[in-house]
Write a structure and sequence with these properties.
CATH topology of the largest domain: Pseudouridine synthase
Number of domains: 3
CATH architecture of the largest domain: 2-Layer Sandwich
Number of helices: 6
CATH superfamily of the largest domain: Pseudouridine synthase
Distance between the termini: 59 Å
Shape: globular
Radius of gyration: 21 Å
Largest sheet: 9 strands, mixed
Helix content: 10-25%
Order of helices and strands: EHHEEEEHEHEEEEEEHEEH
Length: about 325
């Protein structure tokens, strides 16, 4: 007997057999993120054959997937009047220069003072809701102690477009970083999967078995006495990608106490890493937009102390 399916249910077919539940949902509803579905599954909004499963559940042919409320919920974060360094803005996207020691979105231990709190005040109701309650407008992020360019989407159409560009690796993302070590190469490509460190779940590591594909292009812009100013172009965007790739190859980022030496000869607040350039195709005009975030003062001072120089034309070889 054929099972009756309404608008809030669907049956797993042969092509979806043994695929993760969260993956199937994100592929079926492309305007909503996988992390959004993971949250809903855990909250019991999505069930398999009437039962609550984990996001990692491997679906089987003829499983009945029932969906409750899958729309992004209204944001309840408190807007805070925090100054923003705006690099570009229009009705669809906002590009900001994130300062050091600012968390991108609220999390345990950081309920306020985040970039999301600031953009909520600046943009009001004009933010995409695809990433749910705590990440409105956020299509990608950078670490707390990493400075530089970050895109904010003001509507869901822009969010879907930018998320696809990120997935297709077509967003031009160039970082500047100061590394330390011996025999630092002039240029190269690091192609090594990144996943949770099996020995320390808080850290990421090169993980051949369970890691995700990660590719980092790099060039050495200048070098002096065991320190080098490097430029990195991300082909993928894994958590701590540059930090893990550099450390695993013997030249960690200066100040990175997680992946580098515990002791640093300079008083630094985290790794010396700056998201310098961000280039993307505008979701409405289809024109290329490129923003360069000014190098922060602490970074410039450190380059002066280490006798490292930076000129924009040095980046021609990497993008």
């Amino acid at each position: 007997m054929e099972r009756k399916i309404d608008m809030e249910e669907f049956v797993i077919d042969l092509e979806q057999d043994q695929k993760r539940l969260d993956v199937i949902l994100s592929e079926r509803y492309t305007d909503l993120s996988r992390s959004h579905f993971q949250k809903l599954i855990k909250e019991g909004e999505i069930k398999i054959n009437g039962e609550i499963k984990k996001p990692s559940y491997k679906c089987q042919v003829d499983d009945l997937v029932s969906l409750g409320d899958i729309e992004a919920k209204p944001v309840e974060i408190i807007a805070e009047d925090i100054p923003l360094d705006i690099l570009y803005e229009d009705d669809d996207v906002l590009v900001v220069n994130k300062p050091k020691n600012m968390v991108v979105h609220p999390a345990p231990g950081h309920p306020g003072g985040t970039l999301v709190n600031a953009i909520m005040y600046h943009c009001g109701d004009s933010l995409s809701g695809i990433n749910g309650e705590i990440r409105p407008g956020i299509v990608h992020r950078i670490d707390k102690d990493t400075t530089g360019s970050l895109i904010i989407c003001k509507n869901d159409t822009a969010h879907v477009s930018l998320a696809k560009q990120m997935k297709d690796h077509s967003v031009n993302r160039i970082y500047l970083g100061i590394v330390t070590g011996k025999n630092i190469p002039k240029n190269g490509v690091i192609h090594a999967p990144i996943g949770r460190d099996p020995k320390d779940r808080i850290k990421m590591a090169i993980n051949e078995k369970n890691g995700k594909d990660a590719v980092t292009h790099f060039i050495t812009l200048c070098e002096h006495n065991g320190y080098a100013l490097m430029a990195f172009r991300l082909e993928t965007g894994r958590t701590h990608q540059i930090r893990v790739h550099m450390s695993s190859n013997g030249y960690p980022l200066l100040g990175d106490e997680v992946y580098g030496p515990k002791k640093c000869p300079f008083k630094l607040q985290g790794q010396c890493l700056h998201a310098y350039r961000l280039g993307f195709i505008h979701p409405k005009t289809n024109e290329y937009v490129e923003c360069d975030a000014p190098v922060p003062e602490y970074f410039l001072h450190l380059m002066e102390v280490l006798h490292l120089d930076f000129q924009k034309d040095m980046l021609k070889e990497i993008g």
